[in-house]
Design a protein that fits this description.
The complex is a heterotrimer of chains A (about 290), B (about 525) and C (about 280).
Chain A lengths: L16 H20 L4 H29 L5 H40 L6 H7 L27 H25 L2 H32 L7 H33 L9 H26 L1
Helix pairs in contact in A: 1-2, 3-7, 3-8, 5-6, 5-8, 6-7, 7-8
Chain B lengths: L20 H6 L3 H29 L10 H36 L7 H20 L25 H29 L12 H32 L13 H18 L2 H15 L6 H15 L14 H13 L1 H15 L8 H24 L1 H7 L3 H31 L5 H27 L14 H30 L36
Chain C lengths: L1 H18 L19 H34 L15 H29 L7 E8 L2 E6 L4 E5 L3 H6 L22 E4 L4 E7 L4 E5 L4 E5 L5 E5 L5 E7 L11 E7 L1 H16 L4 H9 L1
Parallel strand pairs in C: 1-5, 4-10
Antiparallel strand pairs in C: 1-2, 2-3, 5-8, 6-7, 6-9, 9-10
Helix pairs in contact in C: 2-3
The chains are: A mainly alpha (about 290), B mainly alpha (about 525), C alpha+beta (about 280).
The complex binds heme-A (2 copies), dinuclear copper ion (CUA) and copper (II) ion (CU).
One heme-A (HEA) sits at the interface of chains B and C.
């Protein structure tokens, strides 16, 4: 590859990573589907799929990092990445919006209606035996059996504190990066990563507690469904974010990023803030109110 | 706002693409990817069309003749999914790939590797979807809207369908992100937002819609998956959920989706009509605002697909009023097109014919849409062939017509060859006559009481169904002409000039035909 | 056959005529919605025609202008392109006028909708439950309940490869074994729900359809003044036999209706009758 002059827009030539990604994704999802259909092949396919996807990500991001460090990317390329990342985060917001929408719909409409509200008096009288609407609920048929409600002010409040602090530490790291203070940068990132994984660990404890002691499961009616799907997808995003932060931390230690030029860092920081904000929504609407 | 966007990172003189199959698999070039998208879309149009032919053949006469009812439902479901996600959407993305960089003066799309991935997910996703036809229990058969609880009765195909939809969604979102990044970041100096061609504008807004709603669809189908396999109760009243909740989430995606299928079409038509009227587009800025208004309104009308589910009256009224409002900005567009023609100096080459066909027939589809928006009347129309007639007018004579118009319009630019004008005109007239024989009688069927999604019907509906089927076969056969014209133009033909159409304006016409592998290696001058 | 053909021709011509806006006479030929047999269905019909005519009028203006321009402003007749391309005044006009037209549509539509959805103060109630693929009707006040499925003849004729000609079956696919029977002149409230997937209960002459949602009850109502038999179908895809769960409602004069109720009860009194077990199962 010939070197680019600084004001060129870098247009890479052919890449085989996307097709590897497609094969990986198909293997992963096809394997999952096979597993759901009850075949033992499925699990193996899934593992293969995950490995291929990981291979693709290492390869793809590795190439991008090499190109970035090689000075191929000018300001304009950087801006393309910024737009790309912002709109990707927006798409994630809309994904969560679907589940928040389900939560609101259940709380504002379906449950009150089953309880006879709105134009549904007969629904309640004829079908649900004068069941009384309430939240949280596992529905008029007591789906999944008696369960306990997850309180807001124990672990979840602690987790809120943890995530909010991690937002602060990542900002501290960014500030250090802009000042060119690498040791503070790494320290800030380390703190963020530790907080992030602590959050995930605590959440795992919470889930285990819910399943084993509270009989609160995915199967606990609409409350269990919305609770676990929302917090579960969030937890998955925190995990991804924490892994990405770890990568950024190692890159920082290797001396990547400059005070002016560090989009990789910023992208992950944005992502981390997004995960943070989603958590606030969860804390308020899933745990608290 | 953006500075010069020149050169790729490589030697300026070795612009030739790699050779062989791997060129197409690994390409990061917007034109190659555009071609892949367009060819894929053509293939899917034929696959989806073949399924439509099965539908029309079974409905040719009363009584079950060739398929069993369950297979019929599989055809309906897959026909729609393939046409929408496999034919129309990829065609628009293909056009965007080819044209956006050329129209705004950029060397390529903003994120070329991701561009390749957006495309190369699709063949896998559709193989997965079409593969379900051969599975135990058959392909999904609950309609393209996949409502629970019915869809939860699907056999082995179920998770494959869900994941295929996830993959299509990932592909669309990545494609849309690329479009936005390209438009916002890659414009040549002087190409201000309000100077962008309308095709660029409509795609910018479409991309926004895509990113806003595809993830919502992903969420909805994920809930279906967990309801079936992981004991959740989103869509079951016993657990506090509601089957209708799915419909709300689905149509929050679904309605903006139908504008995703028409806004780029508006853009194409807004490029073509001025060219052949030899007169500047009338009301450019109001076109932009109208497009934005349609996009905005599209988010607050979704429940017009659900007037009969038993919503509270206040809800029905709200959604009725909001839906009716869309006629205003859409009307502005139609009026602007007519005013562009007014006092022009018109000629009627094939692209213009398809664009004019679009204006008339799409408007007819819009009128029936407005009738459907009237909630009390929709209590009669809903789930009848009247709805089927409505959406085929906006989709086939709307979206598909615009795609064909665009293909004829830009094909000489892409290939450097002129297509055969006589054949093109034949294709237009045959299509336009037969498509109306195909879909116009469906209005009557619906009003006379024929429900949609049925494999057999009472004898009172026999005549119109037969007419419609005959129209359908003839329309389908006419499309073979399209494939022939496109392929033969790719392979050879009269040399096209750079300008191609004497009334054409815009940066893409300043490039040679065919254009160089990297569109604008030097940022062009924009007046 | 030739008679059939002339009917075709007639219908095609009428279709064309309707396109041009002369639709009212088309009603009898199965081209158009009908006014139906209730107040509501009449209202809906007139609303439908009103919007249809308005759309036709707009079409005449818009397409008229367009075709005039295509005719006059062709290059081949030597038209030179003008170069106007903007006018705030006309833009405002063609935003405001459609808006006004829409308001004139919205007013009658709102009235019709409010009337249609008002199921209060009924004289009697029928509970309708959708099943894959039949309907279940229950009269809570009368303790009558029964299933209603596609009649045997249609069912035989509709099988793939059956040798029965559908045209030879009376009311092919629109006939059932047990009709829903209702009295004339009463406001009947329907409680509509489902036992499995979503169905939709639709009799065109009554003017509406309403979805049958498992776990929820939707209300609807009707009042028919004249005795008669009205036919409809399930209108929400509900699986493989969605096309084969018709609806037949028979409205009888009060005395006939009472006799029917008595007969049903007598039958139900026989504990072996399937109807009685169904009543037990439903209540
Ligand atoms: C490209 C796709 C597309 C487009 C553009 C539209 C456009 C519109 N659609 Fe359509 N629609 C579909 C695709 C589309 N639709 C599909 C696929 C379905 C069925 C889904 C399913 O169930 O499977 C559907 C179903 C559907 C329904 C539900 C019907 C039912 O199931 O009961 C409704 C109801 O309101 C509706 C309304 C409208 C309206 C009001 C418009 C408006 O945007 C139209 C606006 C245009 C005009 C009105 C014409 C031009 C205007 C003028 C000339 C100005 C003057 C006019 C007046 C003042 C009247 N559509
Ligand atoms: C962009 C979208 C799109 C497009 C282009 C089409 C195109 C066509 N559609 Fe489709 N359709 C939908 C979207 C679309 N449709 C949707 C969303 C539904 C609702 C599904 C649901 O209810 O869930 C639907 C449902 C639907 C139905 C109702 C089914 C039912 O309710 O049971 C029918 C019935 O006539 C139909 C027919 C056709 C026909 C004849 C074409 C034709 O235009 C197709 C023409 C193309 C070809 C035929 C292919 C090219 C030619 C060949 C392959 C050569 C061979 C030809 C012959 C043998 C003659 N479609
Ligand atoms: Cu029951 Cu369709
Ligand atoms: Cu819609």
């Amino acid at each position: 590859m010939s070197a680019a002059t600084h004001d060129d827009y870098y247009v890479p030539h052919g890449s085989h990573w996307p097709i590897v990604g497609s094969i990986g994704l198909t293997t992963l999802l096809g394997g999952f589907a096979t597993m759901l259909n009850g075949s033992t092949m499925g699990g193996k396919l899934m593992i293969a799929g995950v490995l291929i996807v990981l291979f693709m990500m290492f390869g793809w991001f590795g190439t991008v990092i090499r190109e970035s460090e090689g000075g191929y990317y000018n300001e304009q390329v950087d801006r393309s990445f910024r737009w790309g990342m912002s709109w990707f985060i927006f798409s994630e917001v809309m994904f969560f919006a679907a589940f928040f929408g389900a939560l609101f719909y259940a709380r504002e409409f379906s449950i009150p209606w089953i309880g006879g509200g709105g134009n549904n008096m007969m629904t309640n009288l004829e079908l649900w035996n004068s069941w009384e609407a309430a939240w949280p609920t596992n529905g008029p048929a007591n789906v999944g059996g008696e369960y306990e409600v997850m309180g807001a002010w124990g672990l979840p409040a602690l987790n809120t504190l943890i995530l909010l602090s991690s937002g602060v530490t990542v900002t501290w790291a960014h500030w250090a990066l802009k000042k060119g203070n690498r040791s503070q940068l790494v320290l800030g990132l380390l703190a963020t990563v530790v907080l992030g994984f602590t959050f995930v660990g605590l959440q795992a404890m919470e889930y285990s507690h819910a399943y084993h002691e509270m009989n609160l499961t995915l199967g606990s009616g609409i409350y269990g469904s919305t609770f676990f799907m929302l917090t579960g997808f969030h937890g998955f995003h925190v995990t991804m974010g924490a892994i990405m932060l770890t990568v950024i931390m190692f890159r920082s230690m290797k001396g990547h990023f400059t005070a002016e030029h560090h989009f990789g860092f910023e992208a992950v920081a944005w992502y981390w803030h997004f995960v943070d904000v989603v958590w606030l929504g969860l804390f308020i609407f899933v745990y608290w109110l | 706002m953006s500075e010069a966007t020149t050169h790729d990172a490589h030697d300026h003189h070795d612009h030739g693409p790699a050779k062989g199959l791997m060129r197409w698999v690994t390409t990061t070039n917007h034109k190659d990817i555009g071609t892949l998208y367009l060819l894929f879309s053509l293939l899917m149009f034929f696959v989806g069309g073949a399924m439509a032919m099965v539908i029309r053949a079974e409905l040719f006469a009363p009584g079950m003749q060739i398929v069993d009812p369950y297979f019929f439902n599989q055809m309906t479901t897959n026909h729609a999914l393939i046409m929408i996600f496999g034919a129309v959407m990829p065609a628009f993305v293909g056009l965007a790939n080819w044209l956006l960089p050329m129209m705004i003066g950029a060397p390529d799309m903003a994120l070329p590797r991701m561009n390749n991935w957006s495309f190369w997910i699709l063949p896998f996703a559709f193989s997965m979807l079409i593969g379900t036809l051969f599975m135990d229990g058959g392909a999904p058969a609950a309609g393209w809207t996949i409502y629970p609880p019915l869809v939860l009765q699907t056999g082995d195909a179920f998770p494959f369908m869900i994941f295929a939809i996830h993959m299509m969604g990932i592909s669309s979102v990545m494609g849309a992100i690329n479009v936005i990044a390209t438009i916002l970041n890659m414009r040549a100096p002087g190409m201000t937002l309000m100077k962008m061609p309308l095709f660029v504008w409509t795609w910018l807004i479409t991309a926004y819609l895509l990113i806003a709603v595809m993830p919502v669809l992903a969420g909805a189908v994920t809930m279906l998956l967990t309801d079936k396999y992981f004991h959740t109760s989103f869509f079951t009243a016993a657990g506090g959920g509601d089957p209708v909740m799915y419909q709300h989430i689905f149509w929050f995606f679904g309605h903006p989706e139908v504008y995703i299928l028409i806004l780029p079409a508006f853009g194409i038509v807004s490029q073509i009509i001025p060219t052949f009227a030899r007169k500047q587009l009338f009301g450019y800025s109001s076109m932009v605002y109208a497009t934005a208004s349609i996009a905005f309104l599209s988010f607050i009308v979704w429940a017009h697909h659900m007037f009969t589910v038993g919503m509270p009256v206040a809800g029905e009224l709200f959604f009725m009023y909001a839906t009716m409002l869309i006629a205003v900005p859409t009307g502005v567009k139609v009026f602007n097109w007519v005013s562009t023609m007014w006092k022009g100096s018109m000629t009627f080459e094939t692209p213009m014919l398809f664009a004019l066909g679009f204006v008339v027939l799409f408007t007819i589809g819009g009128f029936s849409g407005l009738m459907l928006a009237i909630a009390p009347s929709d209590f009669q129309y809903h789930d009848t062939y009247f709805v089927v007639a409505h959406f085929h007018y906006v989709l086939v004579t709307g979206a598909i017509y615009a795609i064909m118009a665009g293909t004829y319009y830009w094909l000489p630019k892409w290939t450097g060859h002129m297509y055969n004008e006589t054949l093109g005109k034949w294709h237009f007239w045959l299509s336009t006559i037969t498509v109306n024989i195909l879909f116009f009688p469906q209005h009557f069927l619906g009003l006379a009481g024929m429900p949609r999604r049925i494999p057999d019907y009472s004898v009172q509906f026999a005549e119109f169904n037969m007419i419609s089927s005959i129209g359908g076969f003839a329309f389908g056969l006419s499309q073979l002409m399209f494939a022939y014209i496109v392929i033969s133009t790719i392979r050879g033909g009269k040399k096209a000039s750079d300008q191609v159409w004497d009334g054409a304006k815009g940066l893409e016409w300043t490039l040679p035909s065919p254009p160089p592998y990297h569109s604008f290696t030097e940022a062009p001058e924009v007046k | 056959m030739s008679h059939k053909k002339s009917v075709w021709l007639q219908r095609a011509l009428l279709g064309g005529a309707m396109l041009l806006g002369a639709g009212s006479a088309a009603a009898e030929y199965g081209l158009n919605m009908t006014p139906g047999v209730t107040n509501v269905s009449g209202e809906v019909y007139h609303l439908h025609m009103l919007i249809f005519y308005i759309c036709c009028a707009i079409a005449v203006v818009v397409f008229g202008a367009m075709f005039y321009s295509i005719w006059k402003h062709r290059k081949s007749v030597g038209a030179e392109a003008a170069n106007f391309h903007e006018s705030t005044t006309v833009e405002i006009i063609w935003t405001v006028i459609p808006f006004a037209i829409l308001i004139s549509m919205a007013i009658p539509a709102t009235k019709a909708l409010i009337n249609l959805e008002d199921a209060s103060d009924p004289d009697m109630t029928v509970k309708i439950t959708g099943y894959q693929w039949k309907w279940h009707y229950a009269y809570p006040e009368e303790q009558i309940a029964f299933f209603s499925s596609l009649d045997a003849k249609s069912n035989e004729a509709r099988q793939l490869g059956s040798s029965v000609d559908p045209a030879s079956v009376e009311d092919y696919l629109l006939n059932v074994d047990n009709r829903l029977v209702l009295p004339v002149g009463k406001k009947v409230r329907f409680l509509i729900t489902s036992n499995d997937v979503i169905h939709s209960w639709w009799v065109r002459d009554l003017g509406w359809k309403k979805d049958a949602i498992p776990g929820f009850i939707n209300e609807a109502w009707t009042r028919v003044e004249e005795p008669g038999v009205y036919r409809g179908q399930c209108a929400e895809l509900c699986g493989k036999d969605h096309g084969f769960m018709p609806i037949v409602v028979e409205f009888k004069a009060q005395a006939d209706y009472d006799a029917w109720v008595a007969a049903q009860k007598a039958q139900a009194g026989n504990s072996k009758s399937p109807v009685a077990t169904v009543v037990a199962a439903v209540n």
